[in-house]
Amino acid sequence: MGQLSEKTIGQWLEYWAQNTPEKEFIVYSDRDMRWTYKQFNDRVDRLAKGLLSIGVVKGTHVGIWASNIPDWNTMFFACSKIGAISIMVNTNFKQFEIEDMVRNSDMEVLCIIEHEKDNNFMDMTYKMLPELKAQEKGQLHSERFPTMRNVIYMGTEQHRGMYTINELMTLGLTIGEGTYQQAKNACSCFDAINIQYTSGTTGFPKGATLSHYGICNNSFFTGVHLDFSQETKLCICVPLFHCFGLVLGVLNCLTHGCTMVIVKRFDSLLVLASIHKERCTSLYGVPTMYINILNHPMFNLFDLSSLHAGIMAGSLCPVPLMKEVEKKMHMIVTSEYGLTEASPGMTQTRWDDPFEVRCTTVGREFEHTEVKVLDPDGNECPIGEEGELCNRGYSNMIGYYKDPEATAQLIDKDGWLHSGDIGFKDENGNYHVTGRIKDMIIRGGENIYPSEIEAYLQRMPEIKMVQVVGVPSTKYGESVGAFIILNPGCQLTELDIRDFCSGKIARYKVPKYIFFVKEYPLTGSGKVQKYKLREMSVELCKQKGIEII
Asked: In this structure, what DSSP letter does residue 547 have?
């Protein structure tokens, strides 16, 4: 069993930059862009000094709102070196969501690209902070968002009121080495370094505050379970703003001193070409990604024999799909179970486990942590008996940002983090997940909390009540379904609901299935029985001739 490391993220990078300076760390195969550990570390140092020059210090909250571009990592590592706290922003967010996050997180700096798909970050940022167009760079004062001080554009073009990466690197020349070293020395591995907004188990999105210690060690042991070494080349095609991409991907490569081959956004052909050209040994994805790769018409033109072991995660993993990946892509498939609040891994199957274990369980607990199945009274359940899966150890989050009450609901007085998931432990020590206490929907790897969508739809004056549930989906695991009761005399159509959501909330949260009903199934105490609504959704789709995909 490996030991827990007390290196910070910055210290890990400097370790490899000193010991394997010419080894490739970051590769973008499609543009043939390559940074060695030394090249990347030098770039990070220049940007970190630039951040110091505009007042970013230990504890400053810096939002990163971008796809998997090269300088996403530069910004994250630069913040980590000086103790600034990176806040991951989902690229699917619309106006309402980004403003809510900026306000809730007390964000001080926002780093953006121009757009991603149909999301124009530039327009949304100027709408949120119109003062940018009238105030000089570094002089931002916003009435609606008083904590915001700077916006950084992660590109080369000039935009009113925003710094560019190149400008910051130039400004960084004014920061002496002694000042920079002092900022780095002030960082501890136990400090908060990252806030990941998650729907969690108890309500609206909350900021799970994570430490260097938690995410670096969790990433390292994820790699151990995958047989990672310095020779590993991981193809990362999942978003970096999730723990899947950042912790299991980027930091896994960092702690093992290996190479990551990054794809800006998922594209089956680009993933296949990157694996083929770079001889990647590992790949991550959710089931829908693997399905798209396997079904690509040019699949057989690429040599994937270099693949060794990877992860399929994000939703229930079909056994036939795992078999097909292992046969056609020559890759051992493991699954990792956990949640953002656990940094994120709680259990994982190992690369050398038998296939039956890897396809029917979520494996064993991580080293240096405890996982137990607890009954409602907090007692450990016997082998084979279902209860709530709970975690205790180094990987548990520091807490929810500014929400001690929600933190106390999730992590009890004995240090057990309650996942909200139901499962059991078998006689071989492997865990099985059988259901969820919480009602969170997992759609193709995206966590969706129904109460957030319910609150948004409740803004429509015609709606009396709304309940949102997960509808079983062969493609995504689950899709969003909304059961709506209208106020007397009011009328709405499915199109009205979708129009109200379109462009206002993230696309993956917009209800795919909409049912207008007169009443909900209730318990004896008057609580809505959501599991019955899920059952009803399937039956209603059959009655209406709607194909569930």
From this structure: P
127-165, pLDDT tens digit by residue?
Answer: 999 999 999 999 999 999 999 999 999 999 999 999 999
Taking the CB of residue 491, how many other CB atoms lie within 10 A of it? 9
**Per-position DSSP letters for 350-395, written without gaps between them:** -TTS-HHHHHH---EEPTTEEEEEE-TTSPBPPTT--EEEEEEETT
Q: What is the DSSP string of 155-211?
A: SSS--TT-EEHHHHHHHGGGS-HHHHHHHHHT--TTSEEEEEEE-TTTSS-EEEEEE
- Who's near 531: CB < 8 A, 6+ residues apart? none
- The single-letter code of the amino acid at 331 is M
Hunting for tokens 């990877």 — which residue is that? 310
Centre a 10 Å sphere on the Cβ of residue 36 and count the other Cβ atoms it contains.
18
What residues have CB less than 8 Å from 500, skipping those under 6 apart? 457, 459, 460
- 201 pLDDT more than 60: no
**For residue 504, what are its two tokens?**
């206002």
Has this prediction a pTM greater than 0.85?
A: yes
Does residue 390 contact residue 358 with C-beta atoms inside 8 Å?
Answer: no
Q: How many angstroms separate the most distant Cα atoms in the chain?
A: 73
Cis peptide preceding 354, ω within 30 of 0: no
Burial 125-149 (b: 16+ CB within 10 A, else e): bbebbebbeeeebeebebeebeebb
Higher pLDDT, 506 or 452: 506
